């Protein structure tokens, strides 16, 4: 492996420590090397805190070595003042002579300016090292800035006979939860929730299951809750309306007197392109990623409008015989794993 690729891979590893905490900033990783020895590492702090390059530089014990070191970073150093000063300025201030970058920053306030600033100051800059791997790592940030929408993950669980939920008559007889997957799979889903900025479900999912949409089976930050509730059927006695985390409701009702205090309401036209309108609104809410967990109609809406990036489908070890059929996905399988009694299959929308 080439030496630059080795350290960019390490940057990606380090960056993952920020997964779920940096939104709406990207989770960047940075490594500083002097004479083939790592002397500093850093990843992006929670939003408003120092960026990866700053944390890496601050972690170097002997700052005199910086003037003879190489800084590696997954994404182009920022060149503008935001919540924090420009990272490019700090690199220049410490006279770091060489910077190796995995990926250009598509943000309109950066987009090459960081590299220009470094070069103008006399830095040697190498760009696009392991660009493919860095693009995959920064997929949420890139979807937001290049496609002007969140990175969208579809997730559902289905029985061996292809049902996502039992028939309504069975629910009326026994309203207790009908788990398709085992506890290990459900814990994994909570881990995923902690990694994404938002979670989205439809009205029927709330009315039938009254989910909390939190990360109680994992540690981390619960995502923003997004609910599609066309006619405002979900009252303030449901878990999603408890105000514990930011909540956005998409509706066609414009009468604010019907709204629950503390919840954000967005009015859309349900007669056309629902998924597209939701994406446009979430972009304005600075939402970089969303995991869509149901129900079947909501999932199918995003599939039909071809607005999704990944799908993660569990198949449990049970049967419903009758019920609500699972969505249909016509893409090649890109990965599969077994979680005790469950099978998890991955799809990409390339």
Automatic annotation (TrEMBL):
Pathway: Cofactor biosynthesis; riboflavin biosynthesis; 5-amino-6-(D-ribitylamino)uracil from GTP: step 2/4; Cofactor biosynthesis; riboflavin biosynthesis; 5-amino-6-(D-ribitylamino)uracil from GTP: step 3/4
Cofactor field: Zn(2+)
PROSITE patterns (alphabetical): CYT_DCMP_DEAMINASES_1, CYT_DCMP_DEAMINASES_2
InterPro entries according to UniProt: APOBEC/CMP_deaminase_Zn-bd, CMP_dCMP_dom, Cytidine_deaminase-like, DHFR-like_dom_sf, Eubact_RibD, RibDG_C, Riboflavin_Biosynth_HTPR
Limits of the CMP/dCMP-type deaminase domain: 2-126
Record has Cytoplasm as a keyword: no
Pfam families: dCMP_cyt_deam_1, RibD_C
Coiled-coil segments on the chain, per record: none
NADP recorded as keyword: yes
Any one Gene Ontology molecular-function term assigned to this protein's record: 5-amino-6-(5-phosphoribosylamino)uracil reductase activity
Catalyzed reactions: 5-amino-6-(5-phospho-D-ribitylamino)uracil + NADP(+) = 5-amino-6-(5-phospho-D-ribosylamino)uracil + NADPH + H(+); 2,5-diamino-6-hydroxy-4-(5-phosphoribosylamino)-pyrimidine + H2O + H(+) = 5-amino-6-(5-phospho-D-ribosylamino)uracil + NH4(+)
Record key words, sorted: Hydrolase, Metal-binding, Multifunctional enzyme, NADP, Oxidoreductase, Riboflavin biosynthesis, Zinc
Note accompanying the cofactor annotation: Binds 1 zinc ion.
Enzyme Commission number(s): 3.5.4.26, 1.1.1.193
CDD domains in the record: Riboflavin_deaminase-reductase
Known function: Converts 2,5-diamino-6-(ribosylamino)-4(3h)-pyrimidinone 5'-phosphate into 5-amino-6-(ribosylamino)-2,4(1h,3h)-pyrimidinedione 5'-phosphate.
PANTHER family found in the cross-reference section: 2,5-DIAMINO-6-RIBOSYLAMINO-4(3H)-PYRIMIDINONE 5'-PHOSPHATE REDUCTASE, DIHYDROFOLATE REDUCTASE FAMILY PROTEIN (AFU_ORTHOLOGUE AFUA_8G06820)
Name of this chain's protein: Riboflavin biosynthesis protein RibD
Highest classification ranks of the organism: Bacteria, Pseudomonadati, Bacteroidota, Flavobacteriia, Flavobacteriales
